[in-house]
Amino acid sequence: MKNVIFMGTPEYAQKILQRLIDSNNINVVAVYTQPDKPVGRKKVLTSPPVKITAKEHNIPVYQPKRLRDEATIDELLHIECDYIVVAAYGQILPREILDHAPCINLHASILPQYRGASPIQQTLLNGDKQTGVTAMLMDEGLDTGDILKIEMIPVKENTMVEDLFEQLTDVAADLTVDVLHDFNSFTPQKQNESQATHCKKITKVDGEVHFDDARKLYNKYRAFTPWPGVYLSSGLKLKKIELESTDDTHQEAGKIITIDKESIVVTCKQGTLRIYKVQPRSKKEMDVLSYINGKRLSVEDTLF
User: Fold this and answer.
1) What CATH code is assigned to 2-199?
2) Looking at domain 204-294, which CATH architecture does it have?
3) What is the pLDDT of residues 44-54, one digit of tens each?
4) Domain map (residue ranges) of the chain
5) For 80-83, which contacts have Cβ atoms below 8 Å and span 24 or more sequence positions?
6) Mean pLDDT in residue range 251-262
7) Is 0.85 topped by the overall pTM?
C-alpha cells in the first residue's frame, strides 16, 4: 500500500484526488488545500472542491495560509507518506517538504512548454493541435522538475477550454495512478531549458478583443469562455461565435456583411467571424439579431 499526501485545490485537482481514492494500493493519508474563500455577492465562505471530496472520505484536511511557515512544515513532516502528489495546489513547496518524500506534480502541458498558471488557455490561444499532461518530480522552481512521463492528446480547432479541462483532467488522473503504481520503472529526464515557455495568470482585462485577426479572436473566445469572456471596448460580450474564414483581407473591421436567420457575419482586418449571441453591458444575453434590430444596424454597418 502506497501512502500519499495530496495537495490541490480546484476541480482539476479534485478529480485526480477522487481517482486516487478509488484506486487499489493507494491510501491518501492527508490532503492539503487552500483556505476557504468568500464567494459571490453575499461572500459566502466556500470550501475548495478538494476539501469537499476529502471530507466525504474522512481524510484529514489541512489548509495553511502559508506552506512555508515553520509550524506548517513541522506538522507535515510528522505525516508518514511514500509520495506527495501535487495538482494545481497554488503554493510553492519549500525544500523541507520536497525532501520529505518524492513530490510528483501533474502539469497540464507538454513541459517545458507553458510553465505557469494558465497552460490550458495558452494552448488554445496559440491554436496548438496537441497538448498533454506532464508528470514530473518537483524541485524549487516553477514547473522545472525532471519529467517522469508525458501523455499527449490532440486538440480540435473548435475545442473550448471547459472541454479541454475535462479531457486533461481525465488524462492527469490516469497518469497519476500509473506513475504511483510503477514509480521505480521511470527514469527522470531533465527539461530542455532552451525550449521553455511561460504563461501568466488570466485576468479580466485579457478578455478585451478587437476585430483585427479572426483566428486570434476566435482562439481567445475558445480560451476565455466562460471566464473572463471576450468583449469589445464598448463592453459588448461575444457569447457565441464561430470562425467563418481566415484568408480574406478587409480594410474595415467590425462591418456586418451578412445577416442570416440566426446569425451575422462580421469582418475582421484578416478573416471573418459568425456571431450568434451577444450580451450588452449590464444586460442579459440575447441573440444577435435582437441586438442589431434594437440598435437599427444592418449590412455595411459596424457592430461597435
Assistant:
1) 3.40.50.170
2) Roll (3.10)
3) 899 999 999 99
4) 2-199, 204-294
5) 80/3, 80/29, 81/3, 81/4, 81/5, 81/29, 81/30, 82/2, 82/3, 82/4, 83/2, 83/3, 83/4, 83/5, 83/180, 83/183
6) 95
7) yes
